[in-house]
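Field reference: "sequence" (input) and "structure" (output). Example, Acetyl-CoA carboxylase, carboxyltransferase component:
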Amino acid sequence: MTVLRSALDTTAPEYAANREAMLAKLDALEAEHAKALAGGGEKYLARHRGRGRLLARERVELLLDPDTPFLELSPLAAWGSDYTVGASLVTGIGVVEGVECLVTANDPTVRGGASNPWTLKKALRANEIARANRLPLISLVESGGADLPSQKEIFIPGGALFRDLTRLSEAGIPTIAVVFGNSTAGGAYVPGMSDHVIMVDRGAKVFLGGPPLVRMATGEEADDEELGGAGMHARVSGLADHFAMDEPDALRQARRVVARLNRPKAHPAPGAADVRPPRHDEDELLGVVPGDLKVPFDPREVIARIVDDSDFDEFKPLYGTSLTTGWATLHGYPVGILANARGVLFSQESQKAAQFIQLANQRDIPLLFLHNTTGYMVGTEYEQGGIIKHGAMMINAVSNSRVPHLSVLMGASYGAGHYGMCGRAYDPRFLFAWPSAKSAVMGSQQLAGVLSIVMRESAAARGKPYDEEGDAALRAMVEQQIEAESLPVFLSGRLYDDGVIDPRDTRTVLGMCLSAVHTAPVAGARGGYGVFRM
């Protein structure tokens, strides 16, 4: 039997403590998500509604098929910055007329939907996901353009937004712009470079230069409607393909455009009979990860609660036991799983991972990386044993793998172990974190200790006494800084992941991601790994 048995004792005090700590983190996370939902605040929400307009998430909801989920991406973008949490943009994956689409929606209650540096990064990440997974891109537009005080960080890299639209179209990936309000200056190129354009009467305003700029540049007096209204673009310029009477009508027309796209998935979705729920309760995932990440936990307890029927065929279970590898299905889709068992990666784990990744590529099976690693092992014995070569072998395999990768940070994700387990720099199709996760070059205490040792040795080399009080203060400051910068909300705010999720939602989130990646062909690398140092 390959069905995983659970050894998790849900009556143990340790489980209760882990669960309580996770629930506290989830409460804090919910408070941060609420900031994104609040947009520009009550004043600007009321003003927007007073104009008879829908909010960004209301537009998304009307666009999507009824009673279907929306996987919102990067909801904490800009957290910890001077900009509003959420970066005045909603992005995510949802189903429209049975077709999975990447949807973006400007939040006009935040500075008129103006784009700041984090808006740009979030939008570019959405475009990247659309392209990698061949998802039609639907842009729900109402934006005043660039946030001018931060233009120095937006103008030059911002051109990539328009480049992406043309490249998506060239790749045969449909792009649809639904314009509700302003889409001015550079923003006019969003509808200008989209395959399909819908504009709302007396709402949409699309022009390179508004009336004040035209008056200043040419002396011409012109009003909004004749310069860039929906009626003009539908009847005169031809920029609008569809003329909508109001916002619900525009969203109805967008749904009809998608219905006519003729977009079959590259791989048919698994049948209902092929999807069996886990045998163990997903709610129990709240108590799996210890509050102290130095305490190891068995990732099989996680695997047993996310894969179909808790059925897991383990690969090399007696070799390299700090890394669990094996095969399963998740919502009917085949996956190969790599999960850290005891944190540290040794030479055996690295070699095991490289072989497993090659096998997944031979079989065209996506890979799921479940992170809880402090990195590759250090020390004389391990250096002499070739840990650098073997760690490089694992990273080489990850780097050159061609099957889709999904990553979930459950606990620690430190140092080069973060790289070997397909961290952000290694282009996973999707990367999510649990509220318990931490990621940095190393743990805060380790990093502070290393700095202390280096400074102590430097003082000794100069023949000077070492300031112990200053050392203690420095260590405390560094520990506090690194601890804060390794937390998931901080990292998610910088778009180093695609969102911080409730552990109980992991199976659902991964199922939606696997469905999205199978919109595009799934094919592994056939050779082409570069030189493995043996």
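The two ends are 35 Å apart (CA to CA).
The domain at 40-259 is CATH 3.90.226.10 (2-enoyl-CoA Hydratase; Chain A, domain 1).
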